[in-house]
Structure formats: structure tokens, C-alpha cells
């Protein structure tokens, strides 16, 4: 398919793809370094011209059969312009060229970008601009790209801690953070670190959920939170991507440590940090299970047992406690006392 954008700069009526382009005074003058471009890389200067004879003399002293032929020559070499209408005559001097007063461009949209960073609807309009200002040339096919508005600073919290010092006498957590600091201080450069190096751990992380499992068995919301923990406690590292899997120990489901802290008090006078921790302890007991859930919250040593029902428990101290409540009070005051069994001590 021929690119006919520039083809509309013609002299006299010319039928182009079924449209008549009317008179225009001359082919534009231009900069020899300027060449109109084509988005698909094809040559815009290869117009299939009609056979109509309408001779025009070019500034190269060549007689062109019609304005279309002259336009092709002009497109390939901007030094070639219209000298005058009619065949070349050696007795006529070649007049200086100038930009035409009237123009006619086809209206389709096939944008090109000029060297002035202005987008033109098609090559024809860019040729006009070039004629009026020869410093304007072809830069690229398509609309001009907008100025880069990418923020100078980038997200660094997900990167590992690799301390690096700057000329601002600060220790930056890694090269990324040093580069961010350079946005505020363009003269900042890398410098020798003083001893010892103290690294400030990042304190703010995004809340997007991309869980990571740490070597401490805890699930972290995302890698940033994982790295923040590693920065503060280097012994805790990434175990694997994804939430921590619930461990099963001796047939009992253990807790990951991520459960909401909501203490409950067991009949063994132990305050469990969550229902999960209580259930794990219950599972670990040998049958028959003697552990019962007494109430929510921490176990207290001043618990009132006046209304507790008779339910004897034998303590490891050899004492029979008439109720679980009495056992909890005793165990709270003396943690060494454990449940020996249900019922009276024998």
C-alpha cells in the first residue's frame, strides 16, 4: 500500500485514491537532512504517478512529466524543488524557491513525531512545518512520547540488606536506598563506611497479600514484612513462599504462632495464648483426657471457688482437690503442681 500522506503537496488537480487535490503553488523547500518517515518502514517517496502530461521544471533543471513526478523527486531529495511550470528552458533562469502560501493535505491520521517533539497528523503536515522552519525534521513514527514522569524514587523494602555508605555520612540499607537518597541530593556518592556499621531497618511495608513463611514458623503478609523481620532478627530467614503450613506433631495439629492472641484458662491452671494452643495441649494428653477449658482470659490465683461443682482432681503433690477450681488456685500459686489424675488420690 502506498503512503500518500506527502502526496497531497501537488501542483494542479491530481486524483489520489479517488480524491482531487487542488492547486498549490510550489513543492516546499526543506532541509536536505529531513526525510519523512513511514510507520511500517516502507518508502513514502514511491508514489505511483499518473501518465498525464503536465510538465514542471525542477530546480535540478530536470523536466518532470507532471507534479506527481516532481513530488517523488522532492521527497527523495529536498534540494529538488519547483522552478516553474512547464518544461525546463535553458534560456530561463531558475528562480529562488519559497514556501507556498496555500497547502492541501489529506486528512487521514497517520501520526509522526517531529524533532520539536510535536505530533503531526501525517507526513504532509510535518513537511509543511519543515518548510517553514528547516530545523524541524522527522524524529519517529507515531505520536511523540510524553515526557518521562517516572518518579525518581523506587520501592526498596523488598531488597535484601546490603549496607552501603554515602557521602552524606549515613549508612543506607542497600544500593537502591542510596539511589533514592540521591534524588534529594544529586551530589551524593558512595563513600567509605565507618565502623561499626549500623543499619536502619525499613519501617513501612505495603499490605498487599503475598504470604511468605519464615524460618520461625510464622507467616508474613509479604516479602517486605519478611525482610523487615530478617533485618531486625537475622536468624529468622525465609523458609518458603506462601503461608506456613500447619505442622502436625505426634498426630496433634500444632499452632503456627500467627493465631490471634486470645488467652484461655485450662483446668490445669495454665493460661493458653489461644484456643489453638489449648486444643494442642488437650490432644497431647494421654487418654482419658483430664484437661478442660475453664474460662476465657488468664488464669488468676484469686479465683473464687464457692460455686464450683464437686469434681475431684489428684495433684502431683498427693493432695486431692475437691474441684478443678481449687486445683487451679493451688497450681497458680505453686506452678510445680500438675494434674496426677481425675478423682481422689489413692
From TrEMBL:
Database matches in SMART domains: KAZAL
Keywords, sorted A to Z: Disulfide bond, Protease inhibitor, Serine protease inhibitor, Signal
PROSITE patterns assigned to the protein according to its UniProt record, in alphabetical order: KAZAL_2
Key word Repeat present: no
Cellular component, GO annotation: extracellular region
Secretion signal span: 1-18
UniProt cross-references to Gene3D superfamilies, sorted A to Z: 3.30.60.30
One of the Pfam families matching this protein, by short name: Kazal_2
Disulfide bond listed as a keyword: yes
Domain spans labelled Kazal-like: 39-90, 93-146, 147-194, 195-246, 247-299, 300-346
GO BP term (any one): cell differentiation
Protein name: Kazal-like domain-containing protein
